[in-house]
């Protein structure tokens, strides 16, 4: 196996598509981090022409040492020897650093944090099958929204259009005291990769998605009383699934769930027919 730095977006995107990589390992995530002054490294471990491990790290410097974080990675093939692959990933980084990862496979090591549960929806299936897989209550809520006579509009994700959604997200983070990607990072994503953003709205409800190769991520959303009354987020998500599917996306990351602290949001995601993936615990690599 050989570890190689990857320096072009086209090459990295092709490698990430092999893994159907999540947002944290995609080029646009690293580009946004670099826009905010972070150091970004992208390494692929190859077995011949086949990628067996990938890692994009975002680094900050503390007292002469770089703290490197691989969010949603490293990504390891099921058959690869984990120790050999991880050793290869660390070799190109000769500068002093602490490497923390949230790998897609269990490492058999003591984690630094608890594993989180994430919802992943396979949208490679045809639309009839996807709709049939919806939980009955979710499908009924979608029908109610469809009968309300409103349409889900896709909006150009310019900074001005994003501001109401980002302001609502910042307020929610402050009110309920939870940590998530800050709005400033979303604006950096808009700067470096505006064509990757998909913004949908119905009345006073909005949802923002990020397309990255053959996968996509539900990023943030908000609804007011009008949207809540007609189940606007059900309508928006269904429309987004159709649009993303038509653009070649086969996997939709719906984000983490916490049934104890956010039961209604967990139900909303689970009732789409998404599968639960438990992983991404932080480890010292």
TrEMBL record:
It comes from the Bacteria. SUPFAM superfamilies: Acyl-CoA N-acyltransferases (Nat). PANTHER family: LIPID II:GLYCINE GLYCYLTRANSFERASE. This is Acetyltransferase (GNAT) family protein.
């Amino acid at each position: 196996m050989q570890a190689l730095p990857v320096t072009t977006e086209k090459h990295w995107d092709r490698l990430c598509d092999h893994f159907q990589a999540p947002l944290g390992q995609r080029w646009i995530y690293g580009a946004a981090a670099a826009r905010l002054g972070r150091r970004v490294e992208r390494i692929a471990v190859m077995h011949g022409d086949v990628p067996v491990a990938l890692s994009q790290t975002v680094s900050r410097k503390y007292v002469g040492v770089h703290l490197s974080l691989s969010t949603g990675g490293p990504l390891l093939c099921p058959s690869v020897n984990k120790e050999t692959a991880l050793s290869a990933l660390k070799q190109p980084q000769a500068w002093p650093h602490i490497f923390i990862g949230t790998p897609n496979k269990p490492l058999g090591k003591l984690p630094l944090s608890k594993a989180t549960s994430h919802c992943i929806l396979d949208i490679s299936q045809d639309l009839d099958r996807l709709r049939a897989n919806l939980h009955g209550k979710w499908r009924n809520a979608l029908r109610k929204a469809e009968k309300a006579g409103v349409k889900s509009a896709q909006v150009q994700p310019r900074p001005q259009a994003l501001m109401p959604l980002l302001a609502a997200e910042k307020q929610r983070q402050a009110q309920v005291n939870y940590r998530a990607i800050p709005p400033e990072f979303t604006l950096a994503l808009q700067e470096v990769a505006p064509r990757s953003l998909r913004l949908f709205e119905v009345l006073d409800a909005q949802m923002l998605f990020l397309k990255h190769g053959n996968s996509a991520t539900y990023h943030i959303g908000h609804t007011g009383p009008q949207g809540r009354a007609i189940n606007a987020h059900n309508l928006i998500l269904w429309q987004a699934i159709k649009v993303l599917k038509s653009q070649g996306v086969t996997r939709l990351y719906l984000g983490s769930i916490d049934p104890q602290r956010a039961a209604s949001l967990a139900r909303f995601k689970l009732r789409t027919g998404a599968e639960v993936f438990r992983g991404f615990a932080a480890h010292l690599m």
